[in-house]
DNA sequence: ACAACAAATGAATAATGATTCACTTATTTT
DNA sequence: AAAATAAGTGAATCATTATTCATTTGTTGT
């Protein structure tokens, strides 16, 4: 025998894999999943199309992984905002803000994660992550009910409503048909948007007018 | 010259067109837009594939029309519920109920209209109709603000939140991955679902606990 | 240097489905 | 009945992309 898999090679392989992921990620940032074809990704990563299949089972697998990574980052941010020592209502408010503001700051990716039509395999990830968001919210709502700052209610259902309300509110502003070429920030309008969403949601939870 | 288009032929043509629409509609009811390929539709309508292109510009055009018709029906139902003489809050509540209950009664079509991944041309219709729902809600919210039953707020934004909250709440229960084979009604669970949605939404609007 | 194996390549292939078009059939008018 | 025109047909074509695989290039141990 002559060739034995070595540490150096294992590293190099992992690095190549990561490089492909990074480039594919950049493709999605630039034009959504739609425009991120294997050929593009291969070109961006400066490898042959076949190489991608050495590292990933299929296109869907590759993009599912990207979706997972990107959304996990967002879920973590929301979880972070919910992890302070404040009252549940304050924490939920912060989390909703975080969600909306981050989306508006990275609109293409946010749109891809929230609303872009994607392959079934990737859509499955999306459903999973919507559930993940909802679960974080749900826990906070339960906390609020326990501490008395939120009236008793179906926490599961309410959390789903939160996710829906915020996502729907963002679809318009993020949609590429809406403001494709130049997605100007217009900070005033954006912060009013965020305020209205938060206001509706907190009121929906607590019944307390602000 | 010899052939002149006649009333009889115009009727027959319109009828053929409608027949194709009906059959395509039935295909969508049965398996969503995904499984409604031109070949299937042609087979269902007992015409050749080419015939379909005599009546419709393209596949997307055909399905956009179906989407439009189906959603318009739903929008009308919501509009109807909003058109009574009751107070705005009562009317909004009835409309939300109507929306949710109808969706749960026709789950495949509802899922196709609300959440199924579709072609861009059809997706455009979806966005349009989401806006249509929101506009009806918006008007009712304005009425409520005027009559004093709903506190002042950004009616446009709140209406979007309503649409998002209700749609998201239904995606899970309607999703074919969730309960594909047999979508049992389980009326108890469904009515609890509807109650929670309505409760959250009305509270989000009014700030009044129920 | 060479044997043994792994990784990379990218043109060729495959798969999917919408769309076309040369041809057949039906309808109307003279 | 025959000319003129429209509607219908469906096998063949086209377009788009993901995926494969025979071949080349790179790495390791003796």
Characterize the structure shown:
- The structure is a homodimer of 210-residue chains.
- With 210 residues, chain A is mainly α.
- Chain A has two domains: 1-56, Arc Repressor Mutant, subunit A (Orthogonal Bundle); 67-206, Orthogonal Bundle (Tetracycline Repressor, domain 2).
- Helix content of chain A is 75%, strand content 0%.
- Chain A is built from nine helices and no strands.
- The first copy, chain A, has helices spanning 7-31, 38-45, 49-55, 59-81, 88-105, 107-114, 120-147, 155-174, 187-206.
- The longest helix of chain A is centred in the middle third of the chain and has 28 residues, at 120-147.
- Chain A is elongated, with a radius of gyration of 20 Å.
- The first copy, chain A, starts with 6 loop residues before the first helix and ends with a helix.
- Chains A and B meet through α7, α8 and α9 of A and α7, α8 and α10 of B.
Structural class of chain A: mainly alpha
Which term fits the overall shape of chain A?
Answer: elongated
Major protein interface: A-B, 39 and 39 residues
In terms of DSSP E residues, the strand content of chain A is under 5%
Rg of chain A (C-alpha, Å): 20 Å
Q: Could you give the count of β-strands of chain A?
A: 0
Tell me the name of the CATH class of the largest domain in chain A.
Mainly Alpha
What is CATH's topology name of the largest domain in chain A? Tetracycline Repressor, domain 2
SSE sequence of chain A, one letter per element? HHHHHHHHH
Q: How many domains make up the coordinates of chain A? A: 2
The CATH level-2 architecture of the largest domain in chain A is identified as: Orthogonal Bundle
Residue-averaged pLDDT of chain A: 92
Oligomer: homodimer
Specify the CATH homologous superfamily of the largest domain in chain A.
Tetracycline Repressor, domain 2
Low-confidence stretches of chain A: none
Q: What is the first-to-last residue Cα distance of chain A?
A: 75 Å
The portion of residues assigned to helices of chain A is over 70%
User: Count of helices of chain A?
Assistant: 9
Largest sheet features of chain A: none
